[in-house]
Amino acid sequence: MHIPDGYLGPQTYFPLYGISVGFWAIAQKKLKKQLSLKHVPYLAMAAAFSFLIMMFNIPIPGGTTGHAVGTGIIAILLGPWAAVLAVSIVLIIQALLFGDGGITAIGANCFNMAVAMSFVSYWVFGLIKGRSEGNARLSIAAFLSGYIGLLVAALFTAIELGIQPLIATGVDGRPLYAPYPPSVALPALLIGHLFPFGVVEGLVTVLLLKYFLKHEPDLVYALSNPSRNRAPLTPPSPLPSPKRLRAGRPQGRVDKSRNDCRTDTRPRGEG
Q: pTM of the prediction?
């Protein structure tokens, strides 16, 4: 599902770069206010998990490959904005260091698998879960959040590839970029992600959610108050200096004639 270089024209990848950069900027501001230091290691582990699961690219009929992403479970555990940044970092590293996805297509790949999938998975989970806390309802919500989120990411990828012959052709009428129309691109990408990759994504989401509900229930963002236990990632205010503390003390002499050793603040010329 990683789009390589040469398959998208500038009419497509420039706007998607702009959209992705906008989401990155908003996500950075939101996480700076909401994400606590306790959750930073989990964010790093989420990115590592997504990197690992996306490395298993399996060829599917239609001349493309498919894989799970892990965005759904990250959005449920840490929130959609955290998932946007975590998965985007993974996709950028894959494009720059491993050639998995094109550099010109970074904006498109991040929009499909980090932005769109994060929010779709999070919203699907919340919609199906409702106010229920039952294990069966949570499992169904988790499965469908991962499954539908991956299908939406594949759908956006297919649309972006399928419109290229319609918007970018040479003087002879031949496509300049991806040559496959929507009638080819849509089934090629969607069929493989309907099964088995969508099912794998859903099962991974369910299993990991069950694990965290058992061992770290307070971590699950989608089941808690987002502002709870999420102090801003800013250093604490400095303590007052010893000079300031001394400046605030009352000046005077100790009255040794009294047993309670209270401070005598009378002028020195009196009694």
A: 0.80
